Structures are given as structure tokens and as C-alpha cells.
Amino acid sequence: MSGLLPVYYSPTHQEHAPDAHADAPARVEELLRAAVDFGASVRDPGDFGIEPIAAVHAPGLLALLQTAYRRFAQLKEGPRPAAPDTFAVRQSAGRVSHNIWGQLGHYCTDNLTPILPRTWDAAYASAQVALSAAQALFDAPLVYALTRPPGHHAYYDLYGGYCYLNNAAIAAHWLAQRGRRPAILDIDYHHGNGTQAIFYERADIFVCSLHADPADEYPYYSGYPDEMGAGAGEGATLNIPLPQTTDEAAYLRALDWALAAVDAVAPDTLIVSLGFDTLAGDPHGGMGLTPAAFRPIGRSLAALGRPILLVQEGGYQLGALGPALLALLAGLSEATGGRELVATHPPEPDAAG
Ligand SMILES: [Zn+2]
Fold first, then answer.
1. Which of 13, 153, 173, 191 is catalytic?
2. Is residue 155 within 8 Å of 178, Cβ to Cβ?
3. Which of 208, 219, 105 is nearest to 162 (CA)?
4. Could you report the per-residue pLDDT of 218-233, keeping only the tens digit for each?
5. How far is the CA of 351 from the centre of ligand 1 (A)?
6. How far is 88 from 103, CA to CA, in rounded Å?
């Protein structure tokens, strides 16, 4: 299968390079190198336009991401990365200020996520990478979207946690509109709070997240087991918080539990929000996993027997990213026993756009 693995990648991510920041462009370059070593075929994304992004995100957020740097540069402080100094924390949620500072505080969750001159271009390209990979899933059993910036902390109307647009959610909604029934499994070290919120009241997209206990770790305010969805989406959210000390055996047990829950809702597609910040020693995460642990993780994911879209999220320990990805891809290949997973739908007739 290795020669057949499509990997979607856009060099535009390099244009978003915040100073002294965990989400460095080198992360994705390391992963790309490993994917090429595995024998993957690297493909350029198409351009699906703004519509599939606007289907998941608020118009005000999209306008802010596109204009914030330029508007900020006109302030007397001069050009610099745009970031809020106040936050609309439980205050008049419906009102949006005309002021750039007011808008930043309205649409942002933290001060970890600066808007640079080309941040929008990078975020837009990252979403197109996810959409292109989603489309490729109509012809391939496993596709890797090498997205950066990451996406799973971005809400309908909030950016934060290094995330601007929620790549996995955009891909999931796009697939659902085309008759697929995707489930999202988030295995990043941090809870996928944005993804959970976007689908919280929807029954059609099951969201399961395996993450460090938010009582101890970012994003602190969601990811608890009693968050199970609401309204029509009641029961379609599953959170499995884990201790930071979780070792490989305990992690694999939790993963199997998560996959059994995913299997029970009978999705026809698995979208994996893939983080490598569960690796021991990650500077912004770190459980007790070695790169080799991603091999049995890959086997377990493939054993679900559904087409898989991998969407890259976090992972900040540069030297460990390549070995972990190689182990994951090896595990995914092994579990199919050399036999390809069968795509359950005919190829998508329409091209991008
Ligand atoms: Zn993370």
C-alpha cells in the first residue's frame, strides 16, 4: 500500500511562521520527509473556494482573519502580529465591536495564536489541503492531509490554540454533504474543543476525542466525560480524558474503547485528527508514548475497516515526528494485510470548486 498513499501538502504553510513559536514550519517539513521516505505520493491541493470553509465558520471570523494584520498595521503601534489584549469572556456575546482590538477579543480564545501578514493564506491553504484529501478519499482507502496551521481548536466563531480554520471539521462537513457518514476521532494530546463545539448539536457526525485530562491541561474548559452532545447531537460526542502519565498499554486500551464506540455508530469514513504531541518528551504535551507506539495505534485504526482521512494537528518534538509517522503508516499498512480497504462510494464526479 505504501506506494499508493496520497499525501496532500501546500508549501504556503511556510508563510505563517510566528517568532519563537511552537508551531514552527519545520514540523510539517519533517513529516513530509517521513511520508516521502514511506513512499507516499505528494500531491498539490486543489482550490475548493471559500464556500466549504464558510459552511463551518462565522462570516465575522473569516473577515477578521483576512483583514486583522492590515488593520492592526494602521494603528499607531505600527505593524506587528495581531493578537488581542482583552477577551469577551462571558460578556454580551452577541455584540461585536467595530474596533480591531474588540474584534480580536471577540473571536479569539487566547494569546497563543498571532495573525501575521500571510496567516490567512496559510490557513486557507491548510483547509484546501484537508478538502483535497477528503475528495481523494473517494478513490483511496487512506489519505493524509498534511495540514498546517492545525485546526481542531478552532470553533465556528473562535480561533485559538495555534488554529485558525478547523480543517478536520471542514472536511467532515464537506464529506457529509456528499453522502458520506464520517466520524471524527481526535488523538491529539489536547482536547479537540473546536471540533466538539462545531458538531455538538449534530447527530450525523460522531466526535470522539482521546486527550490529556483538561483538569490538568490545555484547553482546560472542555473535554470532560460528561460533555456528550446536546439536542439532536446528544450522545454523538465522546470524551476520553487520560492522565499525563498514560503509558502505551493504557493508551491502546483507551483507543480500542474509543474505536468500539466509533464502530457502534457505523460511520463509513474515519477522520483522524492526528497529533504527535502524545509522544513522551513533547515540549507542549507528552504522555508515555514512544514513536514505536504509533505502530499498534495504526493497526488499531485500520482494524476499524473504514477508509481513513488523516488530518495533521499538533506534535512539537521535531526529532520524533518522522519516526512516529513512519510507525503509524507501517501499522496502518500491516493491519490491512497488504489488501486495500475498499472505498464504499463511487468516485466523486465533480472536481474542486
Ligand atoms: Zn495538541
1. 153
2. no
3. 219
4. 999 999 999 999 999 9
5. 32
6. 9
In the reported structure, the alpha carbon of residue 19 is separated from the centroid of ligand 1 by a whole-number distance in angstroms of 19
Cell 496532500 belongs to residue: 8
Q: Closest Cα to residue 61, out of 119, 133, 137? A: 119
Give residue 45 CA to ligand 1 midpoint distance, Å: 24
User: Who's near 152: CB < 8 A, 6+ residues apart?
Assistant: 161, 163, 166, 168, 169, 186, 188, 190, 192, 193, 194, 195, 273, 313
Find the helix or strand (DSSP H, E) in which 54 lies. helix 51-54
For residue 61, which phi and psi values (nearest 5 degrees)? -65, -45
Q: How confident is the model at residue 89 (pLDDT cuts 50, 70, 90)?
A: confident
Cβ burial 38-59 (10 Å sphere, 16+ → b, else e):
bebeebebbebeeebbeebbee
pLDDT value for 222: 97
Query: On the CB side of 15, how many CA atoms lie within 13 Å of its CA?
Result: 15
Cβ–Cβ < 8 Å for 158, 61: yes
Q: Using 50, 70 and 90 to split pLDDT, how confident is the model at 76?
A: confident
How many Å apart are CA 168 and CA 34, to the nearest integer?
22
CA nearest 258: which of 295, 222, 220, 303? 303
Length of the chain: 353
Inter-residue contact 184 to 193 (CB < 8 Å): no
Q: Which domains does the chain have, with CATH numbers?
A: 2-48+121-335 (3.40.800.20)
Residues 218, 189: Cα–Cα separation, whole Å? 9
| Contact (Cβ atoms closer than 8 angstroms) between residue 140 and residue 306 | no
State the distance from the centre of ligand 1 to the C-alpha of 217, rounded, in angstroms.
Answer: 10
Closest CA to 192 of 151, 143, 145: 151
Lookup: cell for 160: 485559538
Q: Is 153 a catalytic residue?
A: yes
CA of 284 to the centre of ligand 1 (A): 7
CA distance linking residue 269 with residue 176, whole number of Å: 10
Distance set, CA 192 to CA 14, 167, 274 (Å): 24, 12, 11
